[in-house]
Design goal:
A hairpin with a 2-residue loop joins β12 and β13. The chain has a seven-stranded mixed β-sheet with strand order 3-2-1-4-5-7-8, with helices on both faces. It has a five-stranded antiparallel β-sheet with strand order 10-11-14-13-12. Strands 6-9 form a two-stranded parallel sheet. The protein has two domains: 194 residues, Rossmann fold (3-Layer(aba) Sandwich); 82 residues, Formyl transferase, C-terminal domain (Methionyl-tRNA Fmet Formyltransferase, Chain A, domain 2, Roll). The termini are far apart. The protein contains seven helices and 14 strands. The protein is of the alpha/beta class and 295 residues long. α1 packs across α6 and α5 packs antiparallel against α7. Helix content is 25%, strand content 26%. This is Methionyl-tRNA formyltransferase. GO terms for molecular function: methionyl-tRNA formyltransferase activity. Keywords: Transferase.
């Protein structure tokens, strides 16, 4: 076995580390956080470290002197960094013999960058991928060691896709961990001129504009639902989160303006006119609406 250090602080980090430990793979040190105000899917790795008796350190800055010193003390052959929002510095990148392995749930070299699962759903993509690569100083630009396609169904929401990708990723991690142990990993370089990079999303990217198509609104809602922050619309000064909806293309209300409230079943269940049909909100924050209101 190679000496392995594991870095992470989100749900996917926990799931992948747990899969390794349950299979009997040895992890020599863990770098994690105790809490985070940044990651909506934050999950500390401390419980796994304590359960399996693994030395660990909690940090806010993986590149600070104390954390790098901890990493050096383990003399790692390889570092796994899954689910850490900050870039890893030169000193850590150059430390392990086999490099630092990163994880990006997209089909690199396409779709590098931020919020890959959210963008995939919001843009209505039919497939994505689970990709592991040797990290360099760029963002998601390193040599690929494992990539597997993940199909996106029309009914998948953020949690569904998250689970699909993690199921595939667990198999990949177990496979290439064995390959590292046997010196059989063969990294493949990415074409530096290929692909695109997704930007960081902001609050306004999650706001429903009822002039959008019903399908676009549906994709926005399913892309931002749990475990993420939720899409939203404005009712006056009230921001209303939407967690689930369905849409219907219809000409029945073609003469009505987008944003008109067509039916109210409850404070969390109502129907709104969109550009090309109707959107049925099935789960939202409570909001007081009446038929004929405009949003």
């Amino acid at each position: 076995m190679k000496t392995t250090l594991f870095i992470g602080c989100v749900e996917s980090s926990y799931v992948l580390l747990e899969a390794m430990l349950e299979k009997g793979y040895k992890v020599d040190g863990i770098i994690t956080m105790e809490s985070s105000a940044i990651n909506s899917d934050f999950k500390s790795l401390v419980p796994l470290a304590e359960k399996y008796g693994i030395d660990y350190i909690c940090t806010k800055n993986v590149n600070d002197e104390e954390t790098v010193g901890f990493a050096k003390s383990k003399s790692p052959d390889v570092i796994y960094c899954f689910g850490w929002s900050r870039l890893i510095g030169k000193e850590l990148l150059s430390l392990p013999k086999y490099g630092v392995v990163g994880f990006h749930p997209a089909a690199l070299p396409c779709n590098k960058g931020r919020h890959p699962l959210i963008w995939a759903l919001v843009l209505g993509l039919k497939k994505t991928a689970s990709t592991f690569f040797i990290m360099d100083e760029g963002a998601d630009t390193g040599d690929i060691i494992s990539q597997r396609e993940v199909i996106i169904d029309e009914t998948d929401d953020a949690q569904d896709l998250y689970n699909k990708v993690l199921d595939v990723a667990k198999e990949q991690v177990l496979t290439f961990t064995k390959e590292f142990a046997e010196d059989r990993v063969k990294p493949v370089k990415q074409d530096p001129n290929a692909g695109n990079t997704w930007r960081k999303r902001g609050r306004m990217d999650g706001q429903i504009d009822w002039r959008m198509s019903g399908h676009a609104i549906y994709n926005l809602v399913r892309g931002l639902t749990h475990p993420y922050v939720g899409a939203h619309f404005m009712n006056g000064d009230q921001e209303v989160k939407v967690w689930k909806c369905e849409y219907e293309l219809t000409d029945e209300y073609a003469n009505l303006e987008p944003g008109k409230v067509l039916r109210v079943n409850s404070q969390t269940d109502f129907v709104i006119k969109a550009y090309d049909g109707i959107v049925h909100i099935l789960d939202s924050d409570a909001v007081s609406l009446k038929e004929g209101d405009y949003l």
